[in-house]
Fold this protein.
Amino acid sequence: MIVNERIWTLFKRNWQHTLTYWSVFFSFGLCIAFLGPTILDLRCQTQSTLQEITYVFFSQQFCLLIGSSVGGIFKRTLACALSALFISTLLISAVFAIVPLCHNVLLLAVAMAVAGLAMGVIDTIANIQLVKTYQKDSAVFLQALHFFIGLGALLSPLIADPFLSDTNCVVGNGTGNGTRELDHLRNTLAGGPVRNLSKYHLPMEGEVVTQVSYAFWIMAIINLPVPIAVFALIQRERLTVCCSPSSPRLLEQDELALKAQGAGKQEPVPNDSDSGGHGDLFGCCRNGDLHGLPLSFFGVHILGGMVLFMTDGIIGAYAGFVYTYAVAPPMSLPHKTAGYLASIFWAAITAGRLVSIPLSYRVQPVYLLIVNMVGVIVTMLLLLVLHTDSLFLFAGTFLLGLCLSTIFPCMVAYTEDILEYRGCVTTVLVTGAGMGEMVLQVLVGSIIHSKGSYSFLLCDMIMACVGFTLFFGLLICHRMHR
């Protein structure tokens, strides 16, 4: 049978919850990928400098990290979780609709900060709720969940592309920036932090000629069914008041029936409200006896978060700076050719998560993690050895994306299984991944600027080795954990 019968039974019992969580991650993907391609048109719209417009990246990324850290607070009850998801997805649609009206860079930064908070809350809650729903069988559904991020991230630039300006979108005296120079600048800015922006001379005053507003309004309409789906689930569960524990919850009844069916004796299903102290990053152990917890309990949290700090840091740094590396010596690829590398990388991540969906119910997450972590190191080593081979740069980019694609969902499934699905470790993992993507991207950008383009691959190799060492420590910690 193509689909495992047990997995299919679980899905049929909780199909509406599962599809809703997958749809909110599609919303997450839409929002995370649109800023890079549209950044130059948004600069024209706000008539700001290149340096000012890059701060918009920071506002989104920083608030995403805050949202991830505090998002677990809303998992105390199913009502709170779904209410937070409804508000967050609605905010994302609102931000898409409002961005074309932001003619000041400060207003745009505030809008992106709001979107970042909403994305962080979505990231934490959707992962936690899927883990709580499927527990030991959550790996396959987590792989599908993260596939929808990639799907949204692939669709967002495709929607924006027809509306991007081919030439400078602020028409002033002496404007002569061609398509090639703007494509190079757009790909460079999409990486995040950029230095030496003063060498690019783009006018700030003049007639603004851009149609990027239509792209944002289309994305707002595409995203609108997502909050509607969350609201429909709230109505189905009869959860009209946030954090109200008195409403009947159909999902808990399904979980109880499944446990009674799969075990010889019926075990009580933990109530969300009983585990309220395990949701947010700062209250994970607030309701627990800290003196009664083994050191391995904290080790799993710390090491799991640090592994994702490194691996998601590699994702952020590689996607951000592979273009910069490719156009610089010794590779010196044409700008248009190098521009495909980031797209290939994200396509490989999406494809890897799609392929891993059937693998996840046949192979335990820990074995997938071992294969992927070793694959990242081997691929980075080959990229270093063949650093002048432009053909292998494309092949290695695809292989690296495949290896990195499943690490996050597998780590969530693996660590939550170790710690009996408390939900706290997912918040730590999401926060650690977000910190790695933000901090290491800035760090690698600074090193490339001071040491040269070759240091880009060396930095990624070091991060991969450190990540594997931390993962080996996590395996030892698992054996020690009671």
About this structure: The chain is about 70% helix and 0% strand. Residues 244-279 have pLDDT under 50 and may be disordered. The domain at 3-7+13-243 is CATH 1.20.1250.20 (Growth Hormone; Chain: A;). The first strand starts at residue 170 and ends at 171.
